């Protein structure tokens, strides 16, 4: 069963499962509340204010001007200099009976524009939609992706220098004066978030605006989001709010809504930044069942030890056989 | 490719990021580390059996390999002075931290063993260093498999049970090749046997890894990785066959040595390339995870 389905089956009003406390686990004696992001993609309008605010506040280098051909997404992916990435998914779906009329949980659900083949709405983005079957429409999903600040963070586990560390807020941050550019965190991340900058080799990713958190402020992306698609706060409160939002959407007939990364039982112990999605995770470029690779590390070491012993045994047996032959010769 | 049919992705973009490591640096390091580590084990066994010339040659090979390997690692950092950060902490959860400390201990020990063997000085200390290098050698040869598989790279993590045996076999074949190439014909008895055992171990582990990986094993068959893995198979088999003949023919020994070393290089570069290919295609990230979810769903009691 997928984590999304598990979320969908949670009864109304049941409190979210207890939030893991990675800051205490990392040795902070009395840490503040673990904070995080809840990104509710059902109200994302694709304005990219989060991307811009993140770039501005964190003084991230520009990505250059290139057109990807991926809808309005010319950012393409999270990376060393892109710590918020707005995904745009366009696809043809059967026309919904009611569109954009519901107002669940006191939040407006922004409507999806139906494409009328040959009509005015077909002039631009709807060219391929026009060829589609009658009674279909373009569904346009937008979602602002970010570092998940995992409870069990692979990047942090594998970092050989201690450059990556757990903050008192339960987030995961790289210290750029310690990072030595080994690049191990890059393939370790099950979400493909962290990346090295090609010019100097060091790795960079979202800090959840560690500097702003320390000053009691919310991260720049959440501050800039005009629709509260990006919500920041104590993780337990966000999870409770997300559960209510999910119930409201399901009651309103948005059965495809599901939470992603909210479950402390998942393969990374739950994410510090979790999402409400309107389709399968992989449609947004997210792994459907991410696991921290280090959870298999004890087994890997056991096999490496066994392989090492087999090597010793093979050489020992060969030497013993050769010695016996020499002795008998 | 059954899974491709109903597979969805975000514009075909990768989900996990492939490492930015240079193949020559890191796959080269996997090979050199294996050659050094297994060479130390073989050198100790040969020395115990009186094959002193081959043992000395392998000790020099080991220290040279581990030196080159360390240079490759430092080169891959971009800024060499940052290497010292590697020894800032001891971190058991990081195979790279464990490996850095392992190299920091193994390198000087292997160096002492080689220095004593070449100069003939301090034979007792040299024997202790030879033994120490032989104890650390298997770890140097196999930990790189853990380094690769402790990632989200589908072809590496998916084969995390088999990769250490594949690397150990490849390392033993390479070290045996070096012994056949560098040692006198009279001293090839042990290396002939270990060449065959290494080749067999590598082949068996490769077979098991492909079975485990299922559809992801395509990354070991296709493209650059496929070519390298096929070359590795031919070279290693040829090397093992020639090794069996090398007792009578010096030329066969040289040929076996070259083939086994080249086979080991191809194996490491092939595994490396397969990992990169598996990270770049989202089907290899989504496919196994979807299969896992389906299996979990099937085993769980239905609602």
UniProtKB/TrEMBL annotation, chain A:
InterPro entries linked to this entry: 4Fe4S_Fe-S-bd, 4Fe4S_Fe_S_CS, FDH_Electron_Transfer_Unit, Formate_DH_Fe-S_su
Locations listed in the record: Cell envelope
Going by the UniProt record, its keywords in alphabetical order are:
4Fe-4S, Iron, Iron-sulfur, Metal-binding, Repeat
Q: Which Pfam families match?
A: Fer4_11
Keyword Iron included in the entry's annotation: yes
* Source species, domain of life: Bacteria
Record-annotated membrane-spanning stretches: none
Q: Which residues form the 4Fe-4S ferredoxin-type domain?
A: 35-65, 138-169, 170-199
* Chain segments carrying region Disordered: 1-33
Whether Iron-sulfur counts among this entry's keywords is yes
Q: What is this protein called?
A: 4Fe-4S dicluster domain-containing protein
Provide the species name. Answer: Streptomyces spiramenti
Automatic annotation (TrEMBL), chain B:
Q: What Pfam families does its record include?
A: NrfD
Query: Which locations, inside or outside the cell, does it occupy?
Result: Cell membrane
- Organism, by scientific name, is Streptomyces spiramenti
Listed InterPro entries: NrfD-like
TM spans (from-to) = 26-46, 58-78, 98-118, 125-145, 165-183
According to its UniProt record, which protein family does this protein belong to? Answer: Belongs to the NrfD family.
| Gene3D superfamilies, A to Z | Formate dehydrogenase/DMSO reductase domain (1.20.1630.10)
Protein name per UniProt:
Polysulfide reductase NrfD
What domain of life does the native source organism fall in?
Bacteria
What keywords is this UniProt entry annotated with? Cell membrane, Membrane, Transmembrane, Transmembrane helix
Q: Where is the major localization of this protein? A: membrane
What is this entry's stated membrane topology?
A: Multi-pass membrane protein
């Amino acid at each position: 069963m997928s984590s999304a389905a598990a979320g969908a089956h949670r009864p109304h009003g049941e409190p979210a499962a207890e939030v893991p406390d990675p800051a205490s686990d990392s040795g902070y004696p009395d840490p503040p509340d673990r904070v995080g992001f809840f990104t509710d993609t059902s109200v994302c309008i694709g304005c990219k204010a989060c991307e811009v605010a993140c770039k501005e506040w964190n003084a991230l280098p520009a990505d250059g001007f290139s057109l990807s051909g991926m809808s309005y997404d010319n950012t393409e992916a999270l990376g060393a200099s892109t710590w918020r990435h707005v995904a745009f998914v366009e696809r043809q779906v059967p026309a919904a009976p009611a569109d954009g009329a519901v107002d669940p949980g006191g939040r407006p659900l922004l409507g999806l524009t139906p494409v009328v083949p040959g009509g005015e709405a077909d002039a631009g983005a709807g060219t391929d939609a026009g060829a589609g079957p009658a009674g279909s429409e373009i569904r346009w999903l937008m979602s602002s992706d970010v570092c998940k600040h995992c409870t069990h963070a692979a990047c942090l586990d594998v970092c050989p220098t201690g450059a990556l560390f757990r903050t008192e807020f339960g987030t995961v941050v790289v210290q750029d004066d310690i990072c030595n550019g080994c690049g191990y965190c890059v393939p370790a991340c099950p979400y493909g978030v962290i990346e090295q900058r090609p010019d100097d080799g060091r790795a960079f990713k979202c800090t959840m605006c560690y500097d702003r958190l320390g000053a009691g402020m919310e991260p720049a992306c959440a501050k800039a989001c005009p629709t509260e698609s990006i919500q920041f706060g104590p993780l337990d409160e966000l999870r409770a709010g997300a559960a209510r939002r999910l119930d409201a959407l399901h009651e309103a007939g948005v059965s495809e809504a599901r939470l992603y990364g909210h479950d402390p039982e998942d393969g990374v112990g739950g994410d510090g930044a979790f999402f409400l999605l309107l389709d399968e995770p992989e449609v947004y470029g997210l792994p459907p069942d991410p696991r921290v690779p280090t959870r298999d590390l004890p087994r890997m070491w056991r096999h490496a030890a066994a392989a090492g012993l087999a090597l010793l045994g093979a050489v020992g047996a060969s030497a013993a056989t050769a010695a016996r032959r020499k002795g008998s010769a | 490719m059954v899974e491709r049919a109903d597979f969805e992705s975000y514009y075909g973009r990768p989900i996990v990021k492939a490492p930015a490591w240079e193949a020559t640096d890191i796959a080269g390091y996997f090979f050199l580390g294996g050659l050094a580590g297994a060479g130390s084990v073989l050198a100790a066994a040969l020395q115990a059996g009186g094959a002193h010339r081959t043992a000395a040659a392998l000790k020099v090979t080991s220290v040279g390999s581990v030196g080159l390997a360390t240079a490759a690692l430092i080169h891959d950092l971009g800024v060499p002075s940052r290497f010292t950060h590697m020894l800032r902490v001891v971190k058991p959860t990081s195979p790279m931290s464990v490996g850095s400390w392992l190299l920091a201990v193994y390198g000087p020990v292997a160096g002492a063993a080689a220095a004593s063997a070449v100069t003939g000085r301090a034979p007792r200390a040299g024997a202790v260093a030879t033994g120490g290098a032989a104890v650390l050698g298997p770890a140097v040869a196999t930990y790189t498999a853990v380094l690769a598989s402790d990632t989200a790279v589908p072809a590496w993590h998916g084969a995390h049970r088999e990769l250490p045996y594949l690397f150990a076999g490849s390392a033993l074949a390479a070290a045996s090749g070096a012994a056949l190439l560098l040692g006198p014909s009279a001293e090839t008895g042990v290396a002939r046997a270990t060449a065959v055992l290494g080749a067999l171990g590598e082949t068996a582990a490769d077979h098991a890894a492909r079975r485990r990986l299922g559809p992801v094993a395509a990354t070991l068959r296709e493209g650059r990785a496929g070519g390298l893995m096929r070359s590795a198979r031919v070279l290693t088999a040829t090397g093992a066959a020639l090794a069996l003949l090398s007792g009578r023919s010096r030329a066969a020994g040289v040929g076996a040595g070259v083939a086994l070393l080249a086979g080991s290089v191809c194996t490491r570069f092939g595994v490396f390339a397969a990992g990169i290919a598996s990270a770049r295609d989202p089907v290899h990230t989504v496919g196994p995870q979807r299969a896992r979810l389906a299996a979990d769903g099937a085993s769980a009691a239905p609602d």
